[in-house]
Design brief:
heterodimer, A: 577 residues, alpha+beta, 7-stranded mixed sheet, 6-stranded mixed sheet, 34% helix, B: 328 residues, mainly alpha
Amino acid sequence: MASRKSRRKTEVFGFVASVVALAVVATLTAGGAGAGPQGAAAVPRSQTLYTSGKQWGPYTNFNPLKPDYNTGVVGLVYETLFRYDPLKDKFIPWLATGGKWVGRNYVVTVRKGVKWSDGKALTAADVKFTFETQKNTGAQYGTMWKTGLSRITTRGRTVTFHFRGVPNYQEWDSNRYTVPIVPRHIFKAYSATELVSGNASNTRRIVGTGPFAYGGGAGGSQTLQWNRRANWWATKAIGMRMPMKHIVDIHNTSNTASLQNFLQNRIDLSNNFFPGINRHVGGRVGTYYKRAPYMLAANTAWLVPNLTKRPLNDVTFRRALAESIDINRIVVADYQRIVSKANPTGLLPNWNRWVNQAQAKSLGFNFSTSRARNRLSQAGYRDRNGDGFVEDKDGSTINLRLIVPKGWSDWETAIQIIADSAKDAGIKITPAYPDFNGLVDERNTGKFELVINNEKQIGNTAYTYYDYLFRLPILASQTAANFQRFSSPQAWALTQQLNKVPSTSVARAKRIHSQIQRVILTQLPAIPLWYNGMWAQYNTTHWTNFPTSGGNQATPSTWNGYINMTGIDALAKLRPR
Amino acid sequence: MSRYLARKLSIYLLTFFVAASIDWAIPRLMPGDPINGLIARIQADPTAAQEMHGYYTESFGLDEPLWRQYLNFWLGLAHGDLGPSIAYVGSSVSDLIRAAIPYTLALLIPAIVLSYIAGNRVGALAARRKVLDNTALPVAYVLTATPYMWLALVLAYFLAFRWEIFPISGAYDFALQPAWTWEFARSFLEHWFLPFLTLFLVSFGGWAIGMRNLIIYELEADYANYLQALGAPNRLVRKYAYRNAVLPQMSGLALALGVIVGGALVTEIVFGYPGVGTLIITAITNRDYFLLQGIFLFIIIGVLIANFLVDIAYVIVDPRTRTGLQGS
């Protein structure tokens, strides 16, 4: 009897064990496909920097020429001709040793001694090839070919970009530090479609000039590992060396999970949004500023009104609306001061030298419920039915629907505060939270009334902000700019004029900036609210010397487009504890 | 037997056709243009954005009339092609699902099988032991009524965050890449345990209650009384009661599969487990028609296959079905 029982037990145990084993085997088999060449061993903690906050989907895209590439593809692997330091407003020669305008041509000298990770030398032909791939339909940086760039020629290490007419200097400056140079000998095998929308994900063909090479992880793997490369050109050329042997980027699942991992010392540099992180700052948790606003500014959050709808088409009403919003309350109550209030021009702090501050002060709006009330009343917006909210001039009720994407909790709170403070001035706003795609649909097709938007990021020129506000013509579907549908040929002409001014012509550029800012301040095509942060939290348990306002000033972010600003400097200056 | 199977199979095929058609239609009924969402997320510059919109709409075949898209869906399916992902441009839906599916199966299969076995055993024991009935049963009631997500959060909070016994998220240590090593296997099991436990506990409660009630019912049945009257040992009576009680539990398993799959999806999200659950959220938020329909298709096929297996098992386990099939 006993033996039967024990046999039975063994059978059950065997069955259970085999189910578990099967599950493990199934996972290992599939996971093995994404494993890297050195996937077998755990990377040593002391030599590894763990990052997070950029990657929200699987690590599928290794194509630097396609938007939304995996963390580090541009910056760690593929590099740009220049980098741009937004904190010091200067370009840093990178794969190019220099560049200058010769008449209407831009001439670049490609750095000598730069080798691709497969040992081949970087040549002028690589640069020419890279920029020419952008002629393909749907290419990310294709605008330059449509707005003046006509051809590219090479001679030795010199590359000349020929422009028709006056070049769009401001736009071109962006291309100088955002277009990643790819190896012609590898990428010429890709078709136009593959170049534009393919993944270039054969991990043996990830060949860059940067300090890191592919180490492991792809597709559904939860991390992407980059391994330090020997013989990175910058070590010899400028003495820059990467202190970490590996960078392991962790795929985000939620900000909460990231925060827990961060607090348990599993993440060193987190570029996630952590509400309430200010309470943890000090000790082993660091941020760029020791005090509010803690973070550098990355973009402006605008309140975008639909100008095709009443009463938002009335500039007086817009001004009253702007004055009714207690932005400080959003900064303090919603963000606990990890963001700061935006300049009334909406321009980021790194563009301060282009802001006509006196004009901004005299024409900019300020929070004042009473002023907003008076303004509304004088313009004929009065509360006729005694419900506490003003009616339109014709007596019809006003109830503005303000939308933000569902789940963006900080913005959800912000619009509740906006609705609440607008209420005091008699403006009725109803917050609503459609999901992201639903919001984009409303916004692009012009069905919305009010929306918060922050699409334009920090960069070399405020031109991108003006373009975002004033771009004409207005189409049935606005995909990337002028969602408010502000029709001012004068403002759009000024914007285009600015694009054709080199940044070196400071006085001329300032004059145009000032004129454009006057339109923003007086017409309020969109209402600047606060600066969203370049979210960056440092856990200094394993690595120290992260960027701070006190010294070592750099962009502490692994978001796309930030490593090729001064993110790479931030990484190079880290020290193991 | 073969006629029975053929009939079942044809019903399954019809179900599959209808379910797959609904699966194709539902994502397209959601408001919002996926390409606009895609362009908004990549924050392309305005000039490029206009062109990209046309390029991507065309490359995903979304410019074609709906009937054509529906036809393309079946044509693709016939070739085993689930289409391209919109959220992850350049990746095929098949590849994305293939990468995620093992993680989900690694949770689901052990959780379903083990909770079924353990739940039935404990339920059967509880039916005849007063102490167990008074202690285990209330726990089982609480467990089965617990939402997966809530239990997952509670387990994560205490076992991972407060006491740090288990890792809080992911499927393996960040320092590792998937590989055939003991180190990886150990790390995998550590990370696997909490999401598994969540699924296991909730399902376990349901099976235990079901089995306990069935056994009590069976023990009061005429055949059980008759056997006892004949002087058959209690063990034998219980054995027969258990065998009879297993049958409705088996039908219950087929019915419960959909619920457990749903539970696995939310549990994965809580634990940041890189399975299909995480993928499905991305697919929904990005209006990724192809990815969404691909995942649902996988779930449909999975549930149908599991039901089919249960049908076959039923024939094997229940002699009456066999006799019925033979026409006697």
